[in-house]
Inverse folding.
């Protein structure tokens, strides 16, 4: 499999591609690639460009486009993950694996039981989070980089997600009859939002507010899952149910 790089669209001027400094450094000094080898360049439009390297040196890393096609791993349904902020490693793991599973938008959510209550405290982490998302998108064959919105309180997240075709909130106190499987049946959707709570789950007033806003409270069954397990289990189940793994 060819190495993949998301690069600015301005770097792609058919038939030539010139890699920006960070990607060029990786090709030249980390991967030690040579002219004649193939890479895949992505411009975040959903297209991928097969590029044969023609120059790899300190002056520039560039190549010629030999083929182009839509990125085959990009889902047709947009899954928006509203994830309560967790401890650093757990949240970063969700960003990485969620990207691999096809999440289109990540929204860090400040909740009553979240480990961080001040959105401004998370600003310094955004660049690292973007880097994790980008690497996971390149590795998993995505054609679009998932969006990363600023952290926001749950009330703002409920308002921000109002335009989604369907919105789900797994909650350990939801009726067992309101299963995730049932919630994923029905009319086709183009966007679906999932709200995942923090360690300790959503507080009852938060679940009530979500339900009042039109979010479906769903049960994940009799077992209590860790927040990071619930996030990925729901993402994987959702993408499978919506036929995004076919």
């Amino acid at each position: 499999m060819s190495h993949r790089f998301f690069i600015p669209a301005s770097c792609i001027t058919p038939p030539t591609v010139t890699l920006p400094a960070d990607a060029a450094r990786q090709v030249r000094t980390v991967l030690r690639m040579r002219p004649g080898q193939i890479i895949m360049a992505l411009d975040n439009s959903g297209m991928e460009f097969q590029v044969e390297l023609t120059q790899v040196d300190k002056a520039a890393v560039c190549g010629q486009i030999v083929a182009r096609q839509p990125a085959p791993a990009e889902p047709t349904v947009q899954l928006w993950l509203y994830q309560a902020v967790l401890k650093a490693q757990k949240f970063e793991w969700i960003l990485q694996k969620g990207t691999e599973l096809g999440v289109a938008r990540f929204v860090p959510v400040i909740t009553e039981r979240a480990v961080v209550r001040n959105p401004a405290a998370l600003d310094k982490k955004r660049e690292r989070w973007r880097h994790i998302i980008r690497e996971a998108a390149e590795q998993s064959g995505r054609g679009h980089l998932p969006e990363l919105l600023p952290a926001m309180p749950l009330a703002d997240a409920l308002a921000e997600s109002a335009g989604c075709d369907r919105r789900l909130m797994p909650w350990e106190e939801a009726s067992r009859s309101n299963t995730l499987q049932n919630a994923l049946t029905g009319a086709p959707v183009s966007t679906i939002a999932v709200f995942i709570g923090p360690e300790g789950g959503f507080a009852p007033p938060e679940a009530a507010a979500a339900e009042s806003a039109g979010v479906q409270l769903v049960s994940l069954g009799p077992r209590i899952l860790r927040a990071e397990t619930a996030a990925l289990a729901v993402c994987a189940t959702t993408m499978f149910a919506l036929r995004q793994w076919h």
About this structure: The chain has two domains: 3-70, 78-241. The chain has a mean pLDDT of 93.
